[in-house]
Design a protein that fits this description.
240 residues; single chain; globular; mainly alpha
Length: 240
């Protein structure tokens, strides 16, 4: 899909620097998603989800501040509120004990955060070509993991349409993130994209009729406030 989009947009062939960035991003992304799914499978969602979500947001925000400087005060306030929203919305009711999944969550959050930082370094105007390389690298990593662990990999036919839809949505999200970073600040783009658990919670309530807890409701409200603050700060004519 992304290779086709690169052709339609007549993007230039990625240069050596963009290829290098794409390979690094592909490795981080592959490790991050694999660790996240592994953590959710073997550990407590109440540990894995919030740690992964917060790390995946904090690392690009920190990198954005280092590379691009501090944003406007309203934006900083919005970022703080957004991180609180991610923590609350990612919380999952869990009565179990122990710290299962903690290591996987730390690896996943760190790797996904570094993935976001990496793809922010792509040359402006080059999006789908590097994403093609990223997906190729991730495919190689997944195939290697399957061969090494001898894991089952053939999904049932009934799951194929959903898997295709997930792939399209995931690539659309990655593409829009790259475009957002290229047109604005890394800190702002990363923290807004990290609010995706809010959409998950809302869809779970609307489609699956899952109960929205008080923590989730507060998190959703904080997410809306964060978006307003970041939007207001970004619109400030004195903003850098």
């Amino acid at each position: 899909m992304v290779a086709g989009m690169a052709v339609i947009r007549a993007e230039p062939v990625p240069g050596p620097d963009d290829i290098r960035v794409a390979v690094i991003a592909g490795v981080f992304g592959g490790i991050g998603v694999t660790a996240l799914y592994r953590g959710l499978a073997v550990g407590r969602m109440g540990i894995v989800a919030p740690i992964t979500g917060v790390l995946a947001a904090v690392i690009p925000v920190g990198a954005g501040v280092i590379l691009e400087g501090l944003p406007e005060p309203l934006v900083i306030a919005g970022i703080v509120v957004a991180l609180a929203a991610v923590l609350l919305v990612s919380r999952v009711a869990d009565e179990g004990g122990g710290r299962a999944g903690l290591t996987e969550a730390l690896v996943a959050g760190t790797a996904i955060g570094l993935f976001g930082v990496s793809i922010s370094q792509l040359s402006e105007g080059v999006v789908f070509g590097p994403l093609t390389i990223i997906r190729g690298v991730q495919a190689v990593l997944v195939v290697a993991a399957i061969l090494v662990t001898r894991s089952a990999w053939r999904p049932g036919r009934s799951f194929v349409p959903a898997i295709i839809a997930i792939g399209v949505a995931d690539m659309a999200g990655n593409s829009l993130y790259v475009l957002a970073v290229q047109s604005g600040d890394l800190a702002i783009a990363s923290v807004l994209s990290a609010l995706y658990p809010v959409v998950t919670v809302i869809l779970a309530a609307a489609v699956l009729k899952e109960r929205v807890t008080r923590e989730h409701a507060i998190g959703i409200a904080l997410a809306v406030l964060a978006i307003v603050l970041i939007g207001a700060g970004s619109a400030d004519p004195t903003a850098t």
